[in-house]
Amino acid sequence: MRANSNARPHYQRPLLTTPFFERSQYLVETDTYVPWSGYSTPDVFSSVEQEYFAIRNSASVFDLTPMIKYRITGADAERYLNRLITRDVGKLRVNRVAYTVWCNEAGHVIDDGTVFRFGPGEFHLCTAERQLDWLLDSAIGFDVAVSEVTEDIAALALQGPTSCAVLKALGLAGIENLKLFEMAHFVFHGHALMVSRTGFTGDLGYELWIAPEGALVLWDELMRVGQSRGIRAIGYQALEMARIEAGFILPNVDFISAAHTVRLGRETTPFELGLEWLVALEKGHFNGRRALLLEKQRGSRRRLLGIEINGKRAAHGALVYADEEGETQIGEIKSAMWSPTCKRNIALAMVDAPHFSAATQMWVDIYVERELQWDRRMQRAWPVERPFFAPERRKATPAPER
User: Fold this and answer.
1) Is it the case that residue 1 has pLDDT exceeding 50?
2) Vertex 377: Cα angle to 376 and 382 (nearest 5)
């Protein structure tokens, strides 16, 4: 009998494994894992390319369990969240989900995440990093309870054109009518299963939330019914490619939390990240509102842009210049890739004011290794709208089954 590694003493297990590990570990042909919030998660199962194309052409399964989850309840839960985050929680209906950010008093982003509304006084907040200290400090004076429930919920992201067909074959009646950012509740093999039409790929997709006791039966049934629909387990690298095409930002890559920066000027605001649509200045006071009002009046010092670059070499870690000679630096590349779907060399770049206008001319320095020597190439670049890839199926209702 194969033993579950979670049964080992904690001092022999520096990183946790998720409830799906008992199944997924035997699919990881590369034996490559990365740490995520104290968990060990697959970086690549077999092939980055095959996993990426499963997202775009069939169905993919990504273990979302390490996503940090907080339960927020109480009579003041809505008031508390409205003070904490930049969006207007009063507009969020029951069984709906919203993407949001929250800031410190200087208007600098602490983190981003999703807020789920289950009732008048019950919410879940999901974040990439642990934020309990900040959430508890912000709760002072409110009739609200905040608790971390990460280990109480196992989660999978099911993404791709055939994801709806997989869930219908799983027996989730009416799942095709679930709208983007809505959630529905089912009973699955005796376990409560919540399904939200959300994801980090910019494609048609869902996220499935279940108690750890139901994790293995959920995994087994997904793989069984999804076999004829091209389902494949994917790792972090494939998901990273999809999220760049979708134009989504990632902490510690595209921005650093204001709680972690040690140098002045490294913090970012929602406006600088191109997230002004998340800032409800009209709702009343919230953390950072005064600073964001001032920024809106005077303008931002920089902006995260989607850009397209000549050539096919991804501009990882490159600098952005205003001139072809590379004398005037105006920004830097945060995320970059050659997009197999868009057939374009794309990137997210933080560009200084006033150079982030649509008419800006830019050049990017890309270093290419050839026979152990590096050649520097200055490639022309220009701003483009995000997302880079936006298929109609992502928002279509009823969802296509392909």
Assistant:
1) no
2) 140
Instruction: Evaluate whether residue 19 is within a structural domain.
Output: yes
Q: 160 and 233, same structural domain?
A: yes
Q: Which helix (H) or strand (E) holds 221?
A: helix 215-226
Q: pLDDT (tens digit, 9 = 90+) per residue, 102-149?
A: 999 999 999 999 999 999 999 999 998 899 999 999 999 999 999 999
Kindly provide the residue ranges of all beta strands, DSSP E only, lying in 67-153, ordered along the sequence.
68-73, 96-103, 109-119, 122-127, 145-148
Lay out the sheet containing 122-127: strands in order across: 96-103, 109-119, 122-127, 68-73, 145-148
Helix (H) or strand (E) holding 242: helix 236-245
Give the total number of structural domains in the chain.
Answer: 2
**pLDDT per residue over 41-55, tens digit each?**
999 999 999 999 999
The phi and psi torsions of 28 (rounded to 5 degrees) equal -85, 90
Tell whether 79 is covered by a domain: no
Q: Is the pLDDT of residue 6 over 60?
A: no
d(CA 326, CA 316): 17
Whether residues 61 and 161 fall in one domain: yes
Q: DSSP E strands: which ranges in 128-198? A: 145-148, 154-159, 183-188, 191-196
C-alpha 177/C-alpha 149 separation (Å) is: 29
Give one word for 37, left, alpha or beta, with left for phi > 0 and alpha for psi -120 to 50.
left
- Angstrom distance (rounded) from CA 101 to CA 255: 12
Q: Strand order in 205-210's β-sheet?
A: 183-188, 191-196, 205-210, 154-159, 59-63, 231-233
Model pTM above 0.90: yes
Q: Write out the residue range of the structural domain in which residue 214 sits.
A: 5-65+153-245
DSSP label of 387: P
What pLDDT was estimated at residue 5?
47
Q: Convert the pLDDT of each residue in 346-392 to its tens digit.
A: 999 999 999 987 767 899 999 888 888 888 899 999 999 999 999 99
| φ and ψ at residue 304, rounded to 5 degrees | -80, 120
CA distances to 79, 159, 168, 322, 349 from 336, rounded to whole Å, are 39, 22, 35, 19, 9
Tokens 């979670």, residue? 6
